[in-house]
Amino acid sequence: MKSEFLNEIWQLFERFGDNQYGEAINQREHALQCAELAREDGAADALIIAALLHDVGQFINDAGDAAERYGIDGLHEETGAAFLSRHLPATVVEPVRLHVIAKRYLCTKDVSYEQGLSSASLLSYRLQGGRLDENGMHRFESNPHFDDALRLRRYDDGGKRPSWAVPALETYRGMIESLICR
Ligand code: FE
Known about the structure:
Distance between the termini: 9 Å
Bound molecules: fe (iii) ion
Order of helices and strands: HHHHHHHHHHH
Structural class: mainly alpha
Helix content: 55-70%
Radius of gyration: 15 Å
């Protein structure tokens, strides 16, 4: 059961990890850089794995191509959260689900944050609905995973550096395994 789930994750990275979705680095590099930023930040294992797998929904149902190719929002955060929730706890799943709304939150709070987004991130931001209204801001702030979602968002934005070599996917196998809860 555990090993099947791990295999599924590894196969997704094998098949789709080289895809770029409009960024300067590919999805495997992006995932690994985000996980490394979480590790350097002293994040708990669950948040490190959330950082590693936050975009796994891009690999399912062509979601990753949605914005660039079709001009629609592929809802990869929901697809990814659903995939991960089969075996991983809410401390992994919820920050993944919330990493898009976290971007919308930060853009609404701070114009300079929006200006710092990559162009692919800005494109998807517009398709994802842009700024939040007051109600949306409050709802997100009262979510128990609010802090972790914002931390994950910072790793997501930072993990886009060309030629930054970080530890490989295999490094995280044991950590994922020990988080598997069902
Ligand atoms: Fe990302």
